[in-house]
Amino acid sequence: MRYGILIAFILAMGYGCQSESQEQTDNKLAYDTTVVVNEGQKIAKATFQTLSSNLQKAMQEGGVEYALEFCNVEAMPLTDSLSAHHDVSIRRASHKPRNPYNTADSLEAEVIKQYIKKLESGDKLQPVTYADENRITFHAPITITNSLCLNCHGKVNEDISKENLATIQELYPKDQATGFSMGDLRGVWTIRFPATHFDDADIQQLKE
Ligand code: HEC
């Protein structure tokens, strides 16, 4: 009995090491880019619309200060409930985050760097997708296309009033998300799909 467990353990270790060293070439998901991009864009758009309609309602009800408090409490739960609804993980990441939780990780930072380069050379920003063994990741740019955003992400003392800046700093002592202008890259969407999200015809496990 004990031997059995030991042997199983050694086998698992050996197998684990082997599959790890082949990770880069084997077992990546192959997928139809158009299908993933369309699905990612649909979910990013729906999430943006939910967040921005709630934001606008809060601004109408109680001005920028109330909307700041509303976003502080509701932005995450709203995003999480949409993640659960679509059975994916949805996140907004930034190189200049307001909420430290949204700090870009190294892969997101690389995508952001490329997007900023493209913006500088006047190129159009396109979604990016990639896969590993069991999930597919979609990124799309978040740019400032509405002057409404500048109330809370624009230039201090120009777009953002003293009072609102004080509220921002009280809620987010490490805030970096000011100083943006129209057209700037504010961050990226990161949507992670489990392989089961798609039909078999659109996705398959690549095995050598
Ligand atoms: C009323 C103030 C307000 C307005 C207007 C506003 N935001 Fe924000 N924004 C916030 C707050 C507060 C957070 C942090 C939310 C949290 O804690 O999850 C945030 C977070 C974000 C994030 C996530 C990354 C981060 O920095 O944490 C993005 C991306 C973003 N906003 C983009 C926009 C865009 C684009 C617009 C215009 C359509 C906009 N915001 C308008 C207050 C605002």
What layout of secondary structure does this protein have?
Elements: H1 2-21, E1 29-31, H2 33-86, E2 89-93, H3 106-120, E3 128-131, E4 135-143, H4 150-153, H5 162-171, E5 185-194, E6 203-205
Helix pairs in contact: 2-5
Heme C (HEC) binds next to helix 2, helix 4 and strand 5.
List the keywords.
alpha+beta, binds heme C, two-stranded antiparallel ribbon, four-stranded antiparallel sheet, 208 residues, disordered N terminus, 5 helices
Radius of gyration, rounded? 21 Å
N/C terminus separation = 35 Å
Question: Count the helices. How many?
Answer: 5
Query: What is the number of independent domains?
Result: 1
What form results from the Cα inertia axes? Answer: globular
Helices and strands, in order, run as: HEHEHEEHHEE
Main sheet makeup: 4 strands, antiparallel
Structural class: alpha+beta
